[in-house]
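Supplementary Methods, section 5.1.

A reviewer requested that the exact input to the structure prediction be made available. We therefore reproduce it here, unchanged from the version used in the analyses.
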Amino acid sequence: TPARRRSQLPAAVARVRPYVVAVVVAIVLAPSVVVHRAYADHRSPALADRYAERVFSELPRHSVLFVDGYEFAEPMRYRQIVAHERPDVVVVSADLLGLGWYRDQLSRVLGRPLPPVEATNGADTISLIKQLRPTRPVFIDTITMYFLGPFIGYRAQGFVGKVVDGTGPHAAIAGAVTAGDLDRADRVDGLGTTRYLRFPNEFLYYIHQRAHIELAKQLLMRGGLTGVEHQLERAVALVPSDTPARIALTHLREHDPHVADRIRNL
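The structure derived from this sequence is encoded token-by-token as follows.
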């Protein structure tokens, strides 16, 4: 650089530097913001809290609610511990029934010793349900209906199911939850679309979806397919990746004579 220009160079660099830095920052951060914003933004309606409120509204006094996973029980436990709601309900996390510390804790809450430990959490759950049913109303969540339905009897009523004699789903009784009730719950709870179908809300979509599938099974038990298609449509809309539900809906629309068996197995 000629000597007369040498003193001008630092000033020129100082003027340009902020713009260069801004361009570099934009090039580096903009793609990350665009790609990861949906994962970083956890702002959403109080979905878990509304779910817990609905569950408690469906349980009679002194119920025991078996929930398939610890995380699925947290909305109800939160309302019990923080808001002091429904202390009469015992919420059991079925996946913890094989752990000594949890069994001791639950035994104190129930005021009785638990049955001996079984080989699996599912067997532990069934054993404890049998022990409690003679003295308390026992309910299960929609995920437990899915996993243990072939081994225990239950009558679904929205987001919980009352354990009854026999095995598998049982027909609803008068005053049961209707299709309109579930549709309204989807809308009010913010699940009318898949906008929040991401962490940490995915399983709330599954829980709502299972409620629609269980209602479809109950409608079948009434002796026809009236209303079943709408329940399967809602199930697929809530969880589009559920291939068995999509296949069952397709076969229903194609008037497959064996579609009832497909729906019962969902």
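The chain has a mean pLDDT of 88. These observations are discussed further in the main text.
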